[in-house]
Amino acid sequence: MSQDQAASVVRITDVAALAGVSIGTASKALNDTGQLRDETRARVREAAQKLGFVMDARGRALSSGRSYTVGMITTDSFGRFTIPVMLGAEDVLSAGQLAVLMCDTRDDSVREQHYIRSLTSRRVDGIIVTGRSSDPRPPIDVAIPVVYAFTPSTDPSDVSISLDDARGAEILADHLLSLGRSKVAYVSGPRRHAAASSRASAAAAHLGAALEGDPLYGDWSEQWGRQSVDLLLRRSPDLDAIACGSDQIARGVCDRLRELGKSVPGDIAVTGFDDWNVMALASRPPLTTVNLRLEELGRLAGQALLELIASGRPASLAIEPTLVIRASTIGS
Amino acid sequence: MSQDQAASVVRITDVAALAGVSIGTASKALNDTGQLRDETRARVREAAQKLGFVMDARGRALSSGRSYTVGMITTDSFGRFTIPVMLGAEDVLSAGQLAVLMCDTRDDSVREQHYIRSLTSRRVDGIIVTGRSSDPRPPIDVAIPVVYAFTPSTDPSDVSISLDDARGAEILADHLLSLGRSKVAYVSGPRRHAAASSRASAAAAHLGAALEGDPLYGDWSEQWGRQSVDLLLRRSPDLDAIACGSDQIARGVCDRLRELGKSVPGDIAVTGFDDWNVMALASRPPLTTVNLRLEELGRLAGQALLELIASGRPASLAIEPTLVIRASTIGS
DNA sequence: GAAAAAGCGGAATACGTTTTCTGGACTCAA
DNA sequence: TTGAGTCCAGAAAACGTATTCCGCTTTTTC
C-alpha cells in the first residue's frame, strides 16, 4: 500500500540498477564486504532503502553455504521446563540473525527422525536439543553443530548445558540449616527420575545429622505432598522442616499442614524446588524455593551453539539455581 | 559413520550419475513429476536410497518459488494458551512437509517488525499469528497468506480461527441449570478482557432468573476466587452454585468454600473454565469445566493456512468448547 | 510399410545471491 | 613518460534444484 511494492518483489538486481552499479557491487555494499568507496556503499544502501529491498534468504543460503537457520528439537511438547529454555535460546539466536525452526518430537523416535531429516535437508547451521527431564539422552547423529540444553547428552564429548540439581538442593539445605532447623524431612518425586534422586541425595548429604529419616519418594503431585505430610508426622512428630523436590509437592505439603493446624513456617518450614510461579506464589504461604534460571540456561545454550557454528569449542556447563526466599521459611 | 556420507553431502547430481540419467530426469523421478518409465523412476530412487540423498531445501526453495516454511508469530512467549495452539498447528503443518519458524515478539512491536522482516526475507509460504488473549488485534501487513489463531484479527476479511467464549459459558450454564441449580453467581476475571466479559455476559443471559446478582469482576487468580466467596456469601447466603471465569478462580473458590465448611457440590456447585489440568485436576474437588480445544484450534488454523497457500479461500470460524464434567458439580 | 502419435529423457535456463578473479583508472616515484 | 602499486568495481562462476522445451525412440494406426 505504502510503496509500489508487491508489484513484484524487489531483487538485488533492481537495487543495483537504481544505484547504477553491478549486482556484485550491490551485494558487497549491502553486506559491508569487499572494497568499495564509501560513497558507493551509501548510494546502494539508499537505493535499497528506497525500494524497500529485503534480501532473499534463499539465494543467500544457497550461495553463502549458511542458512542462518537453526533447529530446536524438543521431546517435551514445549512443556513447563523447555519453554523458558527455548525462549532464552531463541532470544540470543534471533539477535544473531538466526531463525529458529521448531520441532516437537513428542518423544516419538519416528517423528524425531522426520525432523532431523527435515533440518538436514534445510541445511541448518546447527541444532539445539532439549527435553522434558534432566535425565541424559542419547545424542542425535548429525554432522553439524549440536548443543544439548537442559537434557544433557550421554556422550561427554558433546556440548551440554544442564542444570545443577544437586547444588540447588544444597542451597536449600543450607538455607534451612542457617535458620536453625534441625529435624528436616525430604519429600521427592519418583526415584527413577534423575532430578528426584539427585536432589534428594544431595540434600541428604548436606543436611547430615539434621536429616530426619530417609527421603520419601512419590510423584510430582500436590496429592503426594499432602499424603507425605501424614506419613512424615507419624514417623517424626517433632519435625521442624520439610524440604520438597518440587514446588508442586511443597504446595501440597503446605495445604495439608494448614489443615492439620500446623503453622508454616512457625512450626514447620517448607521449601520447594523450581520456582514455578503457578505453584510457588499461589501456595499458602508462598514458597521459598530455588529458581532454575532456565531462560538463562537457554541463553547459554544459544551462545554455545553460536560459538560452535563459528567453529569455536565451547565447554559444557551446569547452571546453578538461585535461592528465592518467601514466607514458607521466613514468617512475615 | 554408517555410510561414506559426510565425505561431502550427496547432491542430486550424484544420484543422477549413479542412476545413469541426467539431473533433470533425476529430479522428475524423485518428485513424481514429468513422464518417466517406472523402471527409470525406480532406478533413480534406488540410487538416492543407496547414497542417502536428502534433497537440499535451499535449492528447491529457490527454484520452485516455495520455501515450504511458515512462520508462527506469537506475542505470548509461548504461554499457557498459545502452546497448545502452536502444537496443533505445527502438527498439521509438519505433516504437510512444512517447517515452522518460531517468532516470539514478547508484545514488542519492534521485535514484531524484526520477525516480519525475517520471515519476508526467508520467503515463507505463510504466517500464523497467535497471542496471549482472545481480544482481537490489528492485522500484520504482509503480502502472503496469514491466519490468525486464538487471537483474531480486527479485519473481518482476514482468516481468523477463534474461540467461542460465549458458547462455552452457555454450555456451563446449561449444565448447572440441568442440575436444578437456581441461585447461581458468576465470578470472572478483569472486565477489560474480552474473555472475562463475554463469558460473564453470555452466562448471565443464559442463566436468566437463575442468576444471583451481577457478575463479579476481579483478576485471574486463586486469591480472587477465595476472596469472591466471602463477598458472594455475604450478598446471597443461600447460593447453590458459583460459575467461574477460569479454573484458577474456581480452584480458589473451592478452597475457600471448603475452609468455610461448605460442601462442594453438595451445598454449592462450582464450575471453572479452560480445563487447565494443573488447576482443574488439582482442585479439591476436581473441576467441572469446559475444554477449550486449543490444540484443535491450532490444527484448524494450520489447515486453513494450507488451504490459503494452495490459493483456496477458507472461512473464519470459532471453535466451540466441550463440557468436562468432574466432581465439583456432580458428587461422587 | 509409412505416417502420425505417444512416451521418454536430456540440454538449457531460471531462481537470487555471494565471491573470486580480473582489469581499468588513478597515484606516485623514478 | 613510464613503471609499479593501489584502489575500486564489474564479469562470471558457483550454489542445488525445478522446469520448459525439444528431439529422439518406440508404439500405434490406417
From TrEMBL, chains A, B:
Pfam families registered for this protein in UniProt: LacI (PF00356), Peripla_BP_3 (PF13377)
Keywords: DNA-binding, Transcription, Transcription regulation
UniProt entry tagged with the keyword Transcription regulation: yes
PROSITE patterns: HTH_LACI_1, HTH_LACI_2
Domain of life: Bacteria
Gene3D superfamilies assigned to the protein according to its UniProt record, in alphabetical order: 3.40.50.2300, lambda repressor-like DNA-binding domains
Residues of the HTH lacI-type domain: 10-64
InterPro entries according to UniProt: HTH_LacI, LacI/GalR-like_sensor, Lambda_DNA-bd_dom_sf, Peripla_BP_I
Coiled coil: none
The protein, known as: LacI family transcriptional regulator
Species this chain originates from: Frondihabitans sucicola
Upper taxonomic lineage: Bacteria, Bacillati, Actinomycetota, Actinomycetes, Micrococcales
Gene: lacI_6
